[in-house]
């Protein structure tokens, strides 16, 4: 029974969703003229799964562009263009993403944003799984497997390796003010499900 509970907990943790952070570009000022978006982005860590929300008036838009078009403030070859005044863009892959306002003169006056997106999965530790322990043979089942050992040799210059695991969780507050924790929330749900199944069985 304990092995079933352990497997359920491991499955729940492995399947736990990762919650990204939602950044409102320009914070309360939004996507508009007169905001220094380089300063706004400074000090922020953008990860895969995070979202950028651009809030702007009808005189503006959001164009995702290449690095070259970002530097020259050109939206003629935009990768994607938005004009819905409340654009939410998910940062789906690592790398640098470039955004400008395509309205004439707005980008050259500072309405541009470059964000470097990190791969959150690369920074997170890999989940560990417990090693399976073979069941001890019972008294009524004779063991026919001969016990043998194979000697192994380790070079004298090799020293034992030490590993340290650092666990990092990212918590954010959603729009209702409730605390949302990615892997921790999945773990709690998994444990509750496993306990419920254990008591039912």
Automatic annotation (TrEMBL):
Q: Where is this region: Disordered?
A: 124-181
Please give an example of a GO cellular component term from this record.
Answer: plasma membrane
Cross-referenced PROSITE patterns: COPPER_BLUE, PHYTOCYANIN
- Residue span, Phytocyanin domain: 21-119
Q: Which SUPFAM superfamilies match?
A: Cupredoxins
Entry-linked Pfam families: Cu_bind_like
**Comp. bias regions, Low complexity:** 124-173
| Keyword field | Copper, Glycoprotein, Metal-binding, Signal
Q: Where is the signal peptide?
A: 1-20
The family database entries (InterPro entries) matched by this protein are listed as: BlueCu_1_BS, Cupredoxin, Phytocyanin-like, Phytocyanin_dom
- GO MF, one annotated term: metal ion binding
Q: What is this protein called?
A: Blue copper protein
């Amino acid at each position: 029974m304990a092995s079933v509970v352990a497997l359920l907990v491991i499955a729940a943790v492995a399947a736990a969703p990762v919650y990204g952070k939602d950044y409102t570009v320009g914070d309360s000022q939004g996507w508009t003229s007169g905001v220094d978006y380089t300063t706004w982005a400074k000090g922020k860590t953008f990860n895969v799964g995070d979202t950028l929300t651009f809030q702007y008036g009808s005189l503006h838009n959001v164009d995702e562009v290449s690095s070259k078009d970002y530097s020259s403030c050109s939206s003629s070859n935009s990768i994607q263009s938005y004009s819905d005044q409340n654009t939410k863009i998910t940062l789906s892959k690592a790398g640098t993403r470039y955004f400008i306002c395509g309205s004439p003169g707005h980008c050259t006056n500072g309405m541009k944003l470059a964000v470097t997106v990190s791969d959150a999965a690369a920074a997170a530790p890999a989940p560990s799984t417990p090693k399976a322990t073979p069941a001890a043979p019972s008294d009524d089942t004779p063991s026919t497997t001969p016990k043998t050992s194979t000697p192994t040799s380790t070079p004298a210059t090799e020293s034992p390796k030490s590993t340290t695991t650092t666990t990092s969780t990212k918590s954010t507050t959603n729009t209702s003010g409730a605390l949302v924790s990615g892997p921790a929330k999945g773990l709690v749900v998994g444990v509750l499900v496993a306990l419920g199944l254990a008591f039912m069985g």
